Amino acid sequence: MNDCFMNTYHRLPVVLTEGRGAQLTDQAGKTYLDFTSGIAVNCLGHNHPALVKAVSSQAAKLIHTSNYFLSDTSFVFADRLVAACKALGMQRVFMSNSGAEANEGAIKIARKYSQTRYGNGRHRIVTLKGSFHGRTLTTLSATGQDRFHPDSFAPYTEGFIFVERNDLVAMEKALDGTVAAVLMEPIQGESGIWPLDTSYVQAVARLCRERDVLLMFDEVQSGVGRTGTFLASELFQVEADVITLAKGLAGGVPVGAVLAGSRTAEVLGVGDHGSTFGGNPLAAAAGLAVLDTVDNPEMLAEIRRKGDLVMETVRSWQHPQVGEIRGRGLMIGIDIASDAWPVLEAALQKSLLLLSAGQKTLRLLPPYIISDAEIKEGLGILKSVLDNLPPQ
Ligand SMILES: Cc1ncc(COP(=O)(O)O)c(C=O)c1O
């Protein structure tokens, strides 16, 4: 069944056919509890009535217009999204189709901002070790992990500097007059769910202001309510210059967004950037349904409460396999003593879908609509898998 695909993914042996809420069904009719949300995408779960209705009624009206024209749905979505990101000072948005593409847009904004003001030679971008920013050549180059820089894809885009997360001295040293921007995830997702310290981010924000360096948050995984605030970076109480979003933004319909604040809103002009599909009416209708459902205090409080329930339950086991538990809201990393991949396989056998992040960290990204009973059931499965692992 897999032969027609290029062999790029380490897939688990299951073929999914249907979903409802936090449950998925495979070809054989077996159901699974979904603690993955398609890697932080299906934030409203599967088959959410508001999302299905929005997508199907938009599909019956207008699926796509090129960006030579405005569509009413795309305009309303963009307006609502900018309003949802006001806490970080966002004023304008460019719509793309994916997280990597959103980060490409952010990098272009940073380069043009700096080039226009200071001329050539100040184009470098500081990112953090352990970061993940995407799979295009430039976003791979921005990613602060050696394993994403094999020789097979060289040469990479030049101009990225990597510093340790939460190391202010290293950051201060890196901002040496050749740097246009700092790009960082508020919580590093792919490398193991590593939140940044608030005091560190606030100090970096001050340094960036002093040195006219842009502060850009990659919220592709952490944004759109995942951590219990609409943006994870709201917690830092700083103003950002650029924020990127994707994944959960349209609940499974591909869309990405680059948001810009007061210093950056006017940087890109006509002809500087573009995307054929970016933010088309179908994606915008889906995005509006997500915003309507997620961007309200009750839903965000529920995400925080459910996240606490997960973390408190796992802590209460005092399990010899479980080490540090990190994260916020429903973006949770659990360090375990064993390799994560066999745990994913064993959990799948027992009808629970899990993710890993790094070699020995389980990553839990359940949909926001998951019930308490489903959380307890899924964690019960996880505990039984951990109970059966050989002692380390
Ligand atoms: C923080 C972060 N940035 C960017 C990306 C790339 O997003 P996409 O796969 O939509 O290109 C990801 C994907 O995992 C991510 O987690």
In short:
The protein has 392 residues and is α/β, with parallel strands linked by helices. It has 11 helices and 17 strands.
Describe it for me?
The protein is of the alpha/beta class. It has 2 domains: about 110 residues, Aspartate Aminotransferase, domain 1; about 240 residues, Type I PLP-dependent aspartate aminotransferase-like (Major domain) (Aspartate Aminotransferase, domain 2), CATH 3.40.640.10. About 35% of the residues lie in helices and about 20% in strands. It has 11 helices and 17 strands. Strands 4-12-11-10-7-5-6 form a 7-stranded mixed β-sheet, sandwiched between helices. It has a 4-stranded mixed β-sheet with strand order 1-2-3-15. Helix 9 runs parallel beside helix 11. The chain is globular, with a radius of gyration of 21 Å. The two termini are about 35 Å apart. The site of pyridoxal-5'-phosphate has 14 residues, from helix 4.
Specify the CATH homologous superfamily of the largest domain: Type I PLP-dependent aspartate aminotransferase-like (Major domain)
Helical percentage: 25-40%
Number of strands: 17
What structural category characterises the helix and strand content? alpha/beta
Low-confidence parts, pLDDT < 50 over ≥5 residues? Answer: none
Distinct small molecules: pyridoxal-5'-phosphate
Q: Judging from the principal axes of the Cα atoms, what is the shape?
A: globular
Can you list the strand order of the major beta sheet? 4-12-11-10-7-5-6
Tally of structural domains? 2
Whole-Å distance between the termini? 37 Å
Beta fraction of the residues? 15-25%
